Amino acid sequence: MPRGNDDYPAKLPAGAPVPASYAAPIPLTAVPAGITDPVVAARAELKAALTALEIKGNIPKRIDQAARRRHRKLAEFAHEKPAEFIAAAVGVATAVGGVVYLIARGLSR
Fold it and tell me: pTM of the predicted model, to two decimals?
């Protein structure tokens, strides 16, 4: 769905068909409806199954995407609430320093 378009749905007349540009895209793991040829349907099902396996099984890609999401959220938090971000960073640094200190102290004995 296009973003930033003020024409949808307010300016569409009631009962008017939704333009194709506003329709939600078919997910990569879905089989399109209306396929009547069994060979084409089997290929579409195989493609959807392989795509689902690739999405689910590609652990490094999923980790990278999760890290990017977390980084984006952290950057937004730092931009929106800088004082809280600095306090959280100091708290995390103190906690990590305390753990390192305790481990070093325990190893030195």
Answer: 0.49
